[in-house]
Amino acid sequence: MLGLPATGVAPIRASEALRKKLAKLGLYNEADLLVHLPLRYEDETRITSLNRVFTGEPVQIEVVVLSNEVQYQPRRQMVVRAADEYGEITLRFFSFYPSQQAVLGVGSRIRAFGEVRGGFFGLEMVHPRFHQVTENQPLPVEMTPIYPSTAGLANSALQKLIARALVDGDLSETLPEVVRLRLKLPGLARSLHFLHKPPPDADLDTLHARNHPAWRRVKFDEVLAQQLSLRRAYLARREQGAPVLVAKDNLGARLLDSLPFGLTGAQLRAMAEIAGDLAQPYPMQRLLQGDVGAGKTIVAALAACQAISAGWQAAFMAPTEILAEQHYLKLKDWLAPLGVKVAWLSGSLKSKAKREQLAATAADAQLVIGTHALIQDGVDFARLGLAIIDEQHRFGVAQRLALRNKGNNPHQLMMSATPIPRTLAMSYYADLDVTVLDELPPGRTPIKTRLVADNRRQDVVGFVKKHVEEGRQAYWVCPLIEESEALQLQTAQDTYAALLVDLPELTAGLVHGRLKADEKQAVMAAFAAGEIDVLVATTVIEVGVDVPNASLMVIEHAERFGLSQLHQLRGRVGRGQYESSCVLIYAGPLGEIARQRLKIIFENTDGFEIARQDLQIRGPGEFVGARQSGVPLLRYADLEMDADLVEMAREVAEEMLTEHPALAEKHLQRWLGAREELLKS
Ligand code: ADP
Ligand code: MG
Fold first, then answer.
1. What is the model's pLDDT at position 351?
2. Model pTM?
3. How many CB atoms lie within 10 A of CB 45?
4. N or C terminus: fewer CB in 10 A for the chain?
5. Is 297 in the pocket of ligand 1 (CB under 6 A)?
6. Cα dist. 385→145, 150, 313 in Å?
7. Which residues of 357-395 are buried (b: 16+ CB within 10 A; e: fewer)?
């Protein structure tokens, strides 16, 4: 899965077959084994006698087998009767090997670990772990670690390998002693020993909750490895050269002059930061973050102007066709009158002729806008100086890398409207400089959000009617149906037809992903011009046009949408001077999570706050999307619970890279080994 073991790290001594299974768990070398930590523990340091067991509790018993038979009713099973001095119990196995039957022969003394059930026929254990023992065999003095495993790999095998690695593996400290003491973290060797083999008096609760100091130490090391890796990649990229983009004319100023609005303070600050980056001889690696509607596009356009003025090309990549197209229209509108050659690239490249035509476009234009079509083979930029990536979290590492490789190491500006909480940003964007647009342009009106159950749909129809009669326009967004695009289209068509019947006096329009680009554009233009009252849409309008007169957003099956998507959709209204509303129609009964999520969107308007709360109920996975896929950056640390560790690791990483480079290297080897290559984006 993740390539070959890194050199310089002791490989695992095991059979080929076993190594293959270990590789499935991402375990290639001794260091990997040492940080493969238990999911939980079982207490086999004690024996519970059969008169003292409580049902529902995992315990270890020591019994002698009285009988063993295979039954076929109601299904094939091995039924073992066994007893200690105080009582009898049935051990039941629905799958078993002949070797296990032998171990469980009559007269055998065994220790079994499992949960006791009180059945109709008395005490019972189903599929306990067991092994044969001699009378008075000493008990283990440590808890039994239960490791994450994979099919066909017994825990006992992992236990043996890891126990051996604890004895002959490299447990040397990679944190400088001063740092470790300052952070009040226990030593690594001690922590690992403790976590793999806790003594019988260890507090299992803090162990299982992973807030024991030993756990904190390991989590810190893990986060530190991530920070070291990302910061090192960041510094390495600064060593590479990039074109110095200094404007040779006043294109940017002319664009600003032509706008009907002035920039916000946040936009001005962002612009200044980016302008400074572009004038450096090494590539910019900046993320421009800002809530929906914060005005990122104009900031990107000004950056493009600087590249163009300096005699270079800029490329602007967006994740969907409709978003790319919207950018194209807007940027052409802004820049073509100023004499800039703006080109559009999209669709898959099929014919050779088309490929050549696109290649020519990319070679010739000053600003090329498109989808991932931009990074296909055959598209060659003559002088790419700046690569802009909108909604960057929706692209994978490989795609962003591909755009960078289209030019001679162009400057990179990434944009994201998914506000992510601070610690998450610190963790995942440690290899980027981040600029936040924390101010919305003036003149936005607050949006009133309502939640409506779908059996009151007719009320919503009435609400739309009243709204339109007041001279406003409305969006009606149809549910996201991930499983089927056809079904999604069908629903939109049905809704459209139903609205035509319910509201015959209004003009409705329908826009969806299957329409051709010019058809879509025509509908959008009609809506923008006020010729359409209600625009029924599939999720394509998530990134739709700006229509200040549209002040009502209806979203059906709101419970199926992601919170950031709802937030984005809602951000389509509230752009004019009219009071705006968003009606979220949901289909009950709602599950607990769905209910919580709708509550969040109902109660909050700030994208960052929504993201923060979303993170709490959902975990960080989706925020970072493709960046994370396949590369489990953090296995142990939890960005909410361990936020303080992230902050500490950030500082320590800087310190180690400059003052303790050898330790930093060793730390990375231990934690990332072969995996590190994959993190370099
Ligand atoms: P986002 O950050 O979501 O990409 P956009 O760049 O699409 O936001 O901007 C949203 C809308 O606000 C656009 O119509 C844009 O022209 C407008 N806008 C951007 N900056 C300002 C500003 N400073 N004052 C007024 N309107 C602005
Ligand atoms: Mg945008």
1. 63
2. 0.73
3. 16
4. N
5. yes
6. 54, 47, 5
7. ebbebbeebbbbbbbbbbbbeebebeebbbbbbbbbbbb
Q: For a pocket test of ligand 1, which of 267, 297, 545 has the largest count of ligand atoms closer than 8 A to its C-beta? A: 297
378, 540, 564, 582 from 485: Cα distances, Å: 30, 12, 21, 25
Instruction: Write out the residue range of the structural domain in which residue 475 sits.
Output: 447-604
Domain match, 284 and 411 both: yes
CATH code where residue 588 lies: 3.40.50.300
Residue where a domain terminates, one of 409, 437, 465: 437
Best of 296, 298, 316 to mutate for ligand 1, by most ligand atoms within 8 A of CB? 298
Min mean pLDDT across 217-231, 402-416, 461-475 is at: 402-416
State whether 255 and 352 are in the same domain: yes
Question: Do 456 and 548 lie in a common domain?
Answer: yes
Which two tokens mark 282? 């090494």
- The pLDDT tens digits for 417-460 are 776 777 777 777 788 898 999 888 887 778 899 999 989 989 99
**487 and 466 share a domain?**
yes
Instruction: Please tell me whether residues 338 and 465 are part of one structural domain.
Output: no
431: its two tokens: 């290899």
Number of domains in the chain: 4
Ligand 1 pocket member 546 (CB < 6 A): yes
Tell me how long the chain is.
681
3 state SS of 623:
helix
User: Domain check: are 281 and 428 in the same one?
Assistant: yes
7 contacts 676 by C-beta, under 8 angstroms: no
Q: Does residue 263 have its Cβ closer than 6 Å to ligand 1?
A: yes
Contact by Cβ (8 Å): 540, 548:
no
Whether 298 is in the pocket of ligand 1, judged by its Cβ within 6 Å, is yes
Instruction: Say if ligand 1 is within 6 A of residue 441 CB.
Output: yes
**Phi, psi at 118, each rounded to 5°:** -100, 95
Tally of CA atoms within 13 A in the half-sphere of 346 that contains its CB: 20
Q: Same domain for 76 and 183?
A: no
**For the domain that residue 56 is a member of, what is the CATH number?**
2.40.50.140
Residue 462 lies in a domain: yes
Q: Which ligand is nearest the CA of 288, by number?
A: 1
Longest dimension (CA), the chain: 95
SS (H, E, C) 446-459: CEEEEEEEHHHHHH
Pick the residue whose CA is nearest to atom 15 on ligand 1: 295
Q: Does ligand 1 lie within 6 Å of residue 295's CB atom?
A: yes
The answer, yes or no, to whether any atom of ligand 1 lies below 6 A from the CB of 545, is no
Tell whether 406 and 470 lie within a shared domain: no
| Confidence grade of residue 541 (pLDDT, cut at 50, 70, 90) | low
Whether pLDDT at 627 is above 70: no
Mark which of 209, 241, 261 sits at the end of a domain: 209
Q: What is the pLDDT of residues 266-294, one digit of tens each?
A: 999 999 999 999 999 999 999 999 888 88
Q: How far is the CA of 299 from the centre of ligand 2 (A)?
A: 10
In a domain, 677, yes or no: no
Residue 565 lies in a domain: yes
Residue 447 has a CB neighbour count (10 Å cut-off) of: 19
The reply to whether 289 falls in a domain is: yes
User: Cα(438) to centroid of ligand 1, in Å?
Assistant: 13
Decide: 264 in ligand 1 pocket, CB within 6 A: yes
Report how far apart, in Å, the C-alpha atoms of 162 and of each of 141, 158, 315 are. Answer: 17, 6, 50
